[in-house]
Write a structure and sequence with these properties.
Elements (H helix, E strand, L loop, with lengths): L7 H20 L1 H4 L4 E2 L4 E2 L3 E5 L3 E7 L8 E5 L3 E8 L18 E8 L10 E5 L2 E7 L15
Antiparallel strand pairs: 1-2, 3-4, 4-9, 5-6, 6-7, 8-9
Amino acid sequence: MSIVNWSPLKELDEMRRDMDRLFEEFFAPSRRRRGWVKPEVGIIVPNIEMYDRKNEIVVKAELPGVTKEDIDLSITKDSLTLKGEVKKEEEVKEENYYSSERSYGSFTRTIALPVEVESEKAKASFKSGVLEIVLPKKEDAKPKEIKIEVK
């Protein structure tokens, strides 16, 4: 039997790496998800991008197979709710399918906004299956510049 040096620091380092991996998987699910359906529960979840453009927040959502008439947006000062429906174009009997990977049905996604916005001034456009929503920030949420004179 050989003697192995035990190091509590090594075990703490391994535990830290395990916790980092756990938090990375928990807080970054979009890196693992390429489609917009969560297969484990069969729920349609539109992929989004959200970024800051100085005086406004921009949200882009992928909505393949959705028409602009089937999209419903609700905006409050701190959240955005996106609702819609993906409809089948034609009716095909189930026994005639060789494969079916597309999803159909309604979806809802609520996105917490990082700052308060002026919902009445929001603008949306829909092109090539991508919905873009521009949300102006409230005046007190906009960044302020203060010039400091250095002597």
